[in-house]
Each structure stands twice: as C-alpha cells, then as structure tokens.
Design goal:
disordered N terminus, globular, alpha/beta, 9-stranded mixed β-sheet
C-alpha cells in the first residue's frame, strides 16, 4: 500500500450532511513558541471564512518564554482568540483540551511551526463536504530558513527520505492513511475517540488509523495548503526521528498493526545491518555480505544526494549525505526503543477518551 487510493481506505460510515459554512474551531498546541506564535495567530485570524463562525483556541504547555504574553496581547485585541493551559505539556494532551472546549462542528489543527494559506479553513471544509471524510488535510510542505533546513527540505522531497509517504507529496489527491495536521468533523472524536493522551509523537497517524479502522476516511487535498519549518540541525533531526520511531512502535503495540509496512522500513534496515554486523563478527564468511550491503546503501545515499544537490544547491551534497543515514538510523533505533519500552509499560497503558455523542 502506498498510502493513497481512489476510494476510501474504509468509509463504511453514514454521516449527516455537513453545512456549507459550519462553525469551525482552530486548535493550536504550543510550548515556548515566541518566534512563531504571533505569525500563526495572524494566519488564523486572516482566514477567508466568516469571522462569526471561527474561534481560535491556543493551548499552551506552560511556556517559559514570552509565548503566553504574546497570545494574551493578541487575545486582548481579538475576542475570537482564547488561551488555555495544558499541564501535561505534550501536543496530544493539548489537542484533547482544545477539542473538549471547542464549539465548532469542524476542529482544525494548526501547529505553531507552520504558515497557512488564507483559504486553509475554507479549503478544509470544502474537502470534508466533497468527500465525506472524517478528516481532511493537505501535504506537509517544508520551508527553510537556513542552509541545513534547505538541504533537509530536499531530502524530504525524496522517496529515500520519506519512503513514498503520500502526505509528503503536494501533487497527491485522494484517500490516504494520514495528512498534515488535519481538519476533523466533530463526529471523528465521537466515533474514533480523542488523541492518545500519552503519545509524545505519531499522535496524528495513530488517531487517523483509528478513524479508518472505525469505518471513517481520511482525505488528502491539493487545495489545502500549509508550509512547516523542519528541524534546523542534524542533532535536532536525529532526536526528532528517534522520537518518531518510538511513536510508530507505540502505535503498533496499541493497535496490533500498522496500515502499511512503509513506516517500518528504517526498523528493518537497522535490524538487518545489526544482524549482519553480529554475524560477521562471529563468521568471517559473512563479512563480504556486510561490505556489499554497506556499499549498496552508501551508493544509494550518494546517488540520491547528488541528484538532489544538482537541482537545489551543490553545496548541500555533504549535508544530504549525512541527513539520510541520520533519519534512517534514528527512526530505526527509535522503533526498537519503542518496542522495548512498550513491552514494559503495556500493562499500565491508558485508553484514549471519547467525545460524547452530540
């Protein structure tokens, strides 16, 4: 499965028609986002959507910078903005707080590290109405502010970097496994439940999997446009992908399956490399196979890095050669860490909540 389909991956539900202009609630989880929070609030306030049908809920995890002060100043100017506190700090918990307070028939997630088109809400509503999906969103379009982010944006456009993930492709249109952020019909949280309250990463993909398993559908639209800013250094990227791997493993343990094997490819790569290295240490006859596998992987990384640096910037070639292995190794090791941690904590896990049916 490549993450896209011409028909819903599930879609067994019969939903009431969605109004042409439903009330919408924008939920923005944040923590220490003083550099970005005002920009995302201005994006939310400039949406081409009836102002009386739009509210903006900012869920702050106890920021130690000036994030809360900035939100408070904007809220004093604009009564549609409300600041709420998230004692658990993590984004999944913030989303659940916002959803619980939201009055909208559609809940639109906006992350702080992103820019949104002025018709982002309107395009999301149109996609929900047109497709009957419970969640509609756009592709994750990366945007850079420094040299490392520029190289990373190129890597994230490559199948070697994202494994053919549909929601990374801005040209895709159709029913998918997951989308960037997303706009949810309120019924999604009544049917599939809220966000996993303990999920630190992968909370979106896990929720979308539950939506699909419950008979709903998730839709990716080219008309829903947003840009996000990826990590700005190699150590930060490695930490992020290690956390992504842990999150994917947690989803596998909770749901007993993933919608496709694509997220497990780095895990398979790291596991195969570790097994070959161990076998070669014990059996000299295996060493040529290990060398051949290492050369094949290096050739793949170099070829992809050359191709991308030629179309972007030649100076990005060394960074790309470091970015691909960092992403793969960190995600694969994180998946192993998540499996081991999940096996220990499985007995004490909490179930996600659920909105009462309206």
């Amino acid at each position: 499965m490549d993450g896209s389909a011409s028909a819903p991956l599930s879609g067994r539900l019969s939903l009431r028609p969605l109004a042409e202009r439903p009330r919408c609630s924008i939920v923005i989880p944040c923590y220490n986002e003083e550099r970005y929070i005002e920009d995302v609030l201005r994006c939310a306030l400039k949406q081409r959507y009836p102002p009386e049908l739009l509210e903006i809920l900012v869920i702050d995890g106890g920021s130690s910078d000036t994030t809360r002060e900035i939100v408070g100043r904007v809220a004093a100017e604009e009564p549609r903005v409300t600041l709420l506190h998230n004692p658990a700090r993590i984004q999944a918990a913030a989303m659940n707080i916002g959803i619980g307070r939201a009055r909208g028939d559609v809940i639109v997630r906006m992350d702080a590290h992103a820019d949104y088109a002025e018709d982002y809400v309107a395009a999301s509503v149109a996609a929900l109405r047109r497709t009957g999906a419970l969640n509609a969103g756009g592709a994750a379009r990366p945007r850079h502010r420094n040299r490392f982010q520029r190289a990373l944006c190129a890597a994230l456009s490559s199948p070697l970097g994202v494994g053919g993930s549909a929601y990374r492709d801005p040209s895709r249109e159709g029913f998918v496994e997951s989308v960037f952020n997303g706009a949810f019909r309120r019924e999604a949280f009544e049917i599939a439940g809220l966000y996993d309250p303990d999920a630190i990463t992968n909370e979106d993909a896990e929720l979308n999997q539950r939506i699909i398993e419950a008979g709903g559908a998730v839709y990716l639209s080219r008309e829903i446009v947003a840009y996000y800013y990826p990590r700005s250094s190699l150590p930060a990227l490695a930490r992020q992908y290690f956390a992504y791997g842990k999150g994917r493993a947690r989803t596998l343990l909770r749901r007993r399956r993933l919608l496709s094997l694509r997220p497990m490819l780095p895990f398979f790569l790291v596991t195969a490399a570790a097994l070959l290295a161990l076998a070669s240490a014990l059996l000299p006859s295996v060493r040529p196979a290990l060398a051949l596998a290492a050369l094949a992987y290096a050739a793949l990384v170099i070829a992809a890095s050359l191709r991308l640096s030629r179309s972007a910037s030649p100076g990005d070639f060394p960074l790309l050669c470091a970015i691909f292995p960092a992403m793969h190794a960190a995600h694969g090791l994180g998946f192993w860490a998540g499996l081991l941690r999940g096996a220990r904590e499985r007995a004490g896990r909490r179930a996600e909540g659920r909105l009462p049916t309206s």
